[in-house]
User: Fold N-acetylmuramoyl-L-alanine amidase from Heyndrickxia sporothermodurans.
Amino acid sequence: MAIKRVIVDGVQVGAYAEEENVLRTVKRNLRTAQRIIIENV
Assistant:
């Protein structure tokens, strides 16, 4: 399973193998973030 790195406004806020965790982090930051990036690691 691939690890996904979540970067919000240039700061890594997490790295997850579970898709649910990626989605939870994106939802938590969606209103305030200017940029959200998800990268495969």
